[in-house]
Amino acid sequence: xxxxxxxxxxxxxxxxxxxxxxxxxxxxxxxxxxxxxxxxxxxxxxxxxxxxxxxxxxxxxxxxxxxxxxxxxxxxxxxxxxxxxxxxxxxxxxxxxxxxxxxxxxxxxxxxxxxxxxxxxxxxxxxxxxxxxxxxxxxxxxxxxxxxxxxxxxxxxxxxxxxxxxxxxxxxxxxxxxxxxxxxxxxxxxxxxxxxxxxxxxxxxxxxxxxxxxxxxxxxxxxxxxxxxxxxxxxxxxxxxxxxxxxxxxxxxxxxxxxxxxxxxxxxxxxxxxxxxxxxxxxxxxxxxxxxxxxxxxxxxxxxxxxxxxxxxxxxxxxxxxxxxxxxxxxxxxxxxxxxxxxxxxxxxxxxxxxxxxxxxxxxxxxxxxxxx
Amino acid sequence: xxxxxxxxxxxxxxxxxxxxxxxxxxxxxxxxxxxxxxxxxxxxxxxxxxxxxxxxxxxxxxxxxxxxxxxxxxxxxxxxxxxxxxxxxxxxxxxxxxxxxxxxxxxxxxxxxxxxxxxxxxxxxxxxxxxxxxxxxxxxxxxxxxxxxxxxxxxxxxxxxxxxxxxxxxxxxxxxxxxxxxxxxxxxxxxxxxxxxxxxxxxxxxxxxxxxxxxxxxxxxxxxxxxxxxxxxxxxxxxxxxxxxxxxxxxxxxxxxxxxxxxxxxxxxxxxxxxxxxxxxxxxxxxxxxxxxxxxxxxxxxxxxxxxxxxxxxxxxxxxxxxxxxxxxxxxxxxxxxxxxxxxxxxxxxxxxxxxxxxxxxxxx
Lengths: 373, 365
Hints:
The complex is a heterodimer of chains A (373) and B (365).
Chain A: E1 6-12, H1 17-29, E2 34-40, E3 59-62, H2 74-88, E4 92-95, H3 101-112, E5 116-120, H4 132-141, E6 147-150, H5 154-163, E7 169-171, H6 178-185, E8 200-204, H7 213-226, E9 233-236, H8 242-251, E10 258-262, H9 266-274, E11 276-281, H10 290-297, E12 302-305, H11 310-314, E13 321-324, H12 329-341, H13 343-352, H14 362-372
Parallel strand pairs in A: 1-2, 1-4, 2-3, 4-5, 5-6, 6-7, 8-9, 8-11, 9-10, 11-12, 12-13
Chain B: E1 2-4, H1 9-21, E2 28-31, E3 50-53, H2 63-77, E4 81-84, H3 90-101, E5 105-110, H4 121-130, E6 136-139, H5 142-151, E7 158-159, H6 167-174, E8 189-193, H7 202-214, E9 222-225, H8 231-240, E10 247-251, H9 255-262, E11 265-270, H10 279-286, E12 291-294, H11 299-303, E13 310-313, H12 318-330, H13 332-340, H14 343-348, H15 351-363
Parallel strand pairs in B: 1-2, 1-4, 2-3, 4-5, 5-6, 6-7, 8-9, 8-11, 9-10, 11-12, 12-13
Helix pairs in contact in B: 1-15, 2-3, 6-9, 7-12
């Protein structure tokens, strides 16, 4: 009689390409021990316009396939999610969205029924202005979790703050398939591929206030003044600030150099990065910044703000990119100019991208999950 | 009234600045001990304010006695506004509570940040109750402000510029004009001003310096100012790396000697793994010296902008520190540009900024 596979359920609001990457890698790695089930509330993200590839090697269940995310009432969402979890007879659960009321209730119920529930948490203390009362409450709603899948540095510290130092923690939350990105790009990672002289600057980001794109444009304007033949800046993403950004681009007289490319799907992003000199991400608030992984997968140095959670995992200033303050357009322009003018420096930084990249490739997710299980 | 455990040069700078900025107010400085338990600095007395020492160096008081003496000093001084450091000491806490009961306005002087050390939610919850006597605060950095806001103090009652210095004192003591004037670019050395203790992460700094030396034909010297428990281990590390020719241990030096050294410094390195603020950073900026600092340093928040007046690195980033050392040592135009970039920050780091913060807090009472 064959041994029953143990079952583990992963819940995200909606599955994007990187979620599929992670569970595909996990399913491949543990196929003889674990059945992997992905659960999403809806087929469309409330935040991103991404189109996810089909699930490979694991089953993906959509609890509300025909509903718009905002149209699902709390009782329906709670009932259907709880029913699914209980009927699944899974041995372990990994939940994102720890602060969603539905997850708060379900994680408590599952823990009371002696199921192992793990949190997938990437928040950091410095993401917002925190208040002690809410943090105390948060420490209570995190009690049902048997451990956490997170990232190095500030996210790890934040969990220790809320749950103490003895709670099991594993790294590898923010990962994606480096091989898949390279395959989609159809080009060698830098410093191979497109020559230094033909590359442009790239920002891949939602057009929302916390991404600090006004400072990016100010920095780009300074860079343009400082060099003889400025490279274009491609901004890839959509969001509420689009009209405002277009107005600022016009006001700074950057219309011929800054290209708003709209929201791009993953293959187009990979192509974009294959032509990029550097990725620029000066966010005021950034829990991680998955695009930093995608850039490094293509050997593209990054100029990021210290607010980005990916910093501890992936970026070292002067090694594979530069770290600036989000209120520092002059510094951002300075580093853009450095990478623009100094091909040797750029090549060295491009080669430096490989140094920490395994930490953000899907095998790191597999290792993290298996460590907790 | 201002209270610190002991008055060093920077405390005097700030009290003098307040006294000068508020000539109609009487400014009193109270120190607990005649000598610091942490620093070997020479005790200082200001020109424009009155300083009083609560106990001699030999007596040992409990928390209650210390609190009582502190309160008595505030009553004797007729102080309406009292600024207290060391809020985590029970004696200071008791004194703060008693002063509030005596209807004095008590303010916190703080440069702690959430990221200084591992925090526990329950201890922080206790701390949120602990700070109730304080009606306002002056903080060292943006992160300190965020930390106090997290603990419950209203953002409107928090002012910046706790950790400031007299730029004029530093420049006068240096005896040379600030960079990029003064000592020639080629004759300048790297400098570390730091206690030789674990949290200062000095092995990483020395390893980065070694990497820099290995990549250049004519390396500059590294002068390390400070003393501490790691002195012998660091000397041994320097020997193992064959750097004795290039690294000088200067021991603890008084403020004037440090200012003189900054007058001939190319870059100040401060790669601490934990650093509430980092006074040496603002002292370096006062002398026009660019800085390479870790992002742990509180001074980074207000006074350092990467690529403008220095570079910010991660505390584990040996390769990155070596890279920036190499660039600044070999590129005079870059160094001059960053040196020029220190001017605005040095002005902001002057003790007059602290005096203005005191003025705003006390005026709103």
